[in-house]
User: What shape does this take?
Amino acid sequence: MSNAFNLGKIFGIQFRLHYSWFIIFILITVSLSWQYSPSNYPAWSLALFRFLGIVTSLLFFASVVAHELAHSLVGRANGIPIKSITLFIFGGIARMTREVTKAKSELLMAAAGPACSLAIGGLFALLWFFTRNTIAPIAVMALWLAGVNMVLAVFNLIPGFPLDGGRVFRSLLWHFTGNYKRATRVATQMGRGVGYSFILGGILIVFLHPFGLSWFDGLWIAFIGLFLENAASTSYRQVQWREALRGLTVSQVMLSDFSVVSPTITVNQLIQGYVFARGQRCFLVADEGGMRGILTLQNIQGVSQQNKDVTQAKEIMTPIDKLKVAYPDEDVLDVLERMNGADINQMLVVSAGRAIGLFTRDNLMLFLSFRSKLGRWRFPL
Ligand SMILES: [Zn+2]
Assistant: This one.
């Protein structure tokens, strides 16, 4: 997810905040200002309202972080490394560098989040219980936080992938049928079903206002539904891609048709002389001193029209010290994992100390689309 900024590391996991988080933060603040209003508690001072509002928002934020951290720490203990967590409008997205390979690991990891929210909700409920007749401001805050954490737990337990409940459901199905692909298909279809139900429910609320719900509640629920449906479809496509790539090696999908160009060649010369004329998409940049870097269409696309005559290859190439190396016999999925871990889009393929090709995400997508267009015909590669 782009459009997010770093918050810092907790237990070695990078936490990031996506801008959409501020929408939920404003909604929470507005909801709290209704809750903490002088009409409910005439005896409280304005300073107390403000103080409670800020503390409650921060504790809510901490509750969400704890939920995500529970997923990550249990995941890590079960051999699934988590690189970063991005908090966004609907919760958190964990970035794993490796897919889960055991149903039990997935079950534990998925259940940890809602379990953590339930536990936090329970603690706030206890706090409410012991302060309800003595310290009213704390009791009010504890009750709100208890409720919100319970909602967080229950919402996430809805059995539609990629919600936690959908992951729990998939892991059980996977465990009992032994078929990961089918389990994912069923769980993501349920996720889409849940998404469509939310959209339909939201629209009905907008027009019918049942149970005193407002048009805004309806819009919000429909919006969540849209997001869920989208996330479920994307997850399923990702699994299909992984299945399509299973068993392929780097040498089968690498680009081996590349030219060696000088570091001082301009983008325009490159486009005219190589891209248009020969249909090439990937270049090794080298001079007398040896190899300097690599250049792909992706690098070239970033150059604006008026700069194409002056920009040289060396200014936009991926320099050699930033390049990582893959080997022709390696598994494509392993290399993709390494690329995800290092946040890069291409790797140099070397054999016996020589560059023999380039492995790029772009080319992999192209390969997959060619293969799907050619139907079930299997590549002799
Ligand atoms: Zn969760």
Summary: Residues 46-77 form the longest helix (32 residues). The pocket of zinc ion is lined by residues 67, 71, 113, 156, 164 (CB under 6 Å). Residues 156 and 278 are 52 Å apart (CA to CA).
